[in-house]
Design a protein that fits this description.
The chain has 133 residues and is of the alpha+beta class. 27% of the residues lie in helices and 46% in strands. It contains two helices and ten strands, in the order ββββββββββαα. A five-stranded mixed sheet has the order 2-1-9-8-5, with no helix packed on it. It has a five-stranded antiparallel sheet with strand order 4-3-6-7-10, covered by helices on one side. Strand 1 and strand 2 form a beta hairpin. Helix 1 runs antiparallel to helix 2. The longest helix is centred in the last third of the chain and has 20 residues. It starts with a strand and ends with a helix. The model has no long low-confidence stretch (mean pLDDT 88).
């Protein structure tokens, strides 16, 4: 059997995922990372991006919003603000959020909050389009 990681992903609303993975990819404030089993212990801050959970040749993707990841050898725990499977995303709602965030950025209102809202809405749109919605 191939080496695996125990992956747990928790949001304030639910336990999003619990299971094994051979490789996990996500976006941190320092860029994209990929984690294999036996990784050195570390903690990272997450940025909005695509979460990829590999299990052999199978890959599941989700929209992962801000949070933290604790990596301890063969275990990863992700505490995220929100995580969504593509089929859970309402593309029309994400488009509306993108428009609102762009307007706030143009008006220089809410600076960093508007930029983060724009990143989240664009991520949701990308994931919904992958799902063909």
């Amino acid at each position: 059997m191939a080496d695996t990681l125990q992956l747990v992903i928790i949001t304030p609303e639910r336990e999003f995922f619990r299971g094994e993975s051979t490789f996990v990819e996500f976006t941190t404030t320092d860029g994209d990372v990929g984690i294999y089993p036996k990784h050195i212990p570390t903690t990272v801050v997450l940025d909005p991006g695509i979460l990829r959970i590999h299990n052999g040749k199978e890959v599941r993707e989700a929209a992962l919003h801000s949070g933290f990841a604790e990596i301890l050898g063969d275990r990863i725990t992700i505490l995220a603000e929100a995580v969504e499977w593509p089929e859970e995303i309402d593309k029309n709602r994400a488009e509306e959020a993108r428009i609102r965030a762009e307007r706030k950025l143009e008006d220089n209102a809410e600076g960093g909050k508007a930029e983060l809202a724009l990143k989240r809405s664009v991520l949701r749109i990308r994931m919904a389009e992958k799902e063909g919605r």
